[in-house]
Amino acid sequence: MNQPSHTYKLLYYDIIEELLFHICSNNTNYCVQCKIGGDEPPIAIWKKFETYKAKALENMAGSRLDRHKLASCICGAIIETKPLTGFNGARILKNANEIFALYVGLSVLKYYMTNDLTGPLKDTDPELQIKANNYLRETFSMKLPSMAENICDTQGYEKNLSYALYRTHENCPVSGRECFHYDIWAYAKIFYHLEMYNREPLQKLYREYMHSL
């Protein structure tokens, strides 16, 4: 690993950093760790992301991750590095990093989904493409299945999923140390289903925007 890729830089500064800023500016108890394992947060997350990416590619024929595996790898990197912490020792939600990682993954999906919709405009009207992209990213919020759509659960989808991510941190009864077990493929599948869940609402918003011009 020499330098972060263009894709990682784009996703870090357009998605991860923006969400971190939003979280910390809206709650004074939250801040970002200055160093994670001796590295600044963008580099620490990148190193873990590259580790997960390499694991995923071991079982793939191609050399590029699709958006669902990309979202899964970034999600795993965040919950392992735990960039969010309490300001001056303040208490924060124990699964704060997992909630953050989940929404980073959703934002990665939205980034590619909006590009898919507006991409055909690039050659005919690049200015409109930029405007449409900005509109969709500012207006559309990725949704999670509601309580009404749950069959047996008594808790919301976000709470269940964020705690499932939190439980990837377990103490090994033999060594007494943390045994981190994150399944790239399982969460890639979850992100795939979440994209399918949000696809039609996003397409509807795009059609309405284009018809309003």
| Number of separate strands | 4
> How would you sum up the major sheet?
2 strands, antiparallel
Q: How many separate helices?
A: 8
Percent strand: 5-15%
**Percentage of helical residues?**
55-70%
Order of strands in the sheet with the most strands? 1-2
Mean pLDDT: 91
**What would you call the structural class?**
mainly alpha
The radius of gyration computed from the alpha-carbon positions, rounded to a whole number of angstroms, is: 18 Å
Low-confidence stretches: none
Global shape:
globular
| Cα separation of the termini | 46 Å
Order of helices and strands: HEHHEHHHHEEH
What does this structure look like?
- The longest helix has 28 residues, at 184-211.
- This protein has a two-stranded antiparallel sheet with strand order 1-2.
- It is globular.
- The chain has helices at residues 6-26, 41-58, 67-81, 96-118, 121-124, 126-139, 157-166, 184-211, and strands spanning 30-32, 84-86, 169-171, 178-180.
- The mean pLDDT is 91.
- Helix 3 (67-81) packs antiparallel against helix 4 and helix 4 (96-118) packs across helix 7.
- It is mostly helical.
- Helix content is 62%, strand content 6%.
